[in-house]
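Minutes, project check-in
Item: structure for the 237-residue chain
Input as provided by the requester:
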Amino acid sequence: MTKEFIDINNNISPKIITVGNEETPVIIIDDFAIDTKNIIDDACENSSFTIDNNSFYPGLRSKLPKPYVISVLQKIYQGICHVYKIPTQLQLKPQDTYYSLITNTKEELDLIQRMPHFDTSRPFYFAILHYLNDKPHGNTGFFRHIPTGLEKIEDNNVEDYLNSAQKFIDINGEPEQEYCTSTSAHFELYHEIEYKPNRLVIYPGHLLHSTIVCPNTDINSDPKVGRLTANIFIEFK
């Protein structure tokens, strides 16, 4: 594979939105690549999808090709630094890079997979999500923890959040045996990013979020038709 593995659109026009009461910036870039055929073909033909034992992801993952990751990060890292005011002394460090496919049925979900999650409480950790296959597929939702009002789980509130969430479950019971796709008594769905093929989304990993899973279209282990995404997780440190 060469550095031309993905041909990125030179005319991209990033859109910066703010979400939630805390007005957290989220970057959305439509038509990110000139053509996503190579990256989709690689997922279909050259990748080995397995369960990710290092996370609670409800499906299968496979490593992304390094040339793709390099090309994406070279294109967007300066924008991330500007939007999120990254301290200049910090350096970008790729953390995890995966193709992802949702495959767990609702009956297979653990407790934590039935709730919105955060990637980390650290301040300069970001998720880069590239929607690849054609629609229809589920959106990405951002949630607010109703008992505490928290949207971002940070180092200074992570213990309070975890204690409050456990207390809610102790009193009210575990959530239903299904994906979290809408507002409940415990979490409020306050914003959704629409799934759109060849859309790139960047958001801080401390935001509470979840895929708004559509069982009929999203739970599929076939990378040709499933909810195939490329996920790059980075941290500035």
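Outcome recorded: The helical segments are 37-45, 66-83, 158-172, 215-218.
No further action items on this chain.
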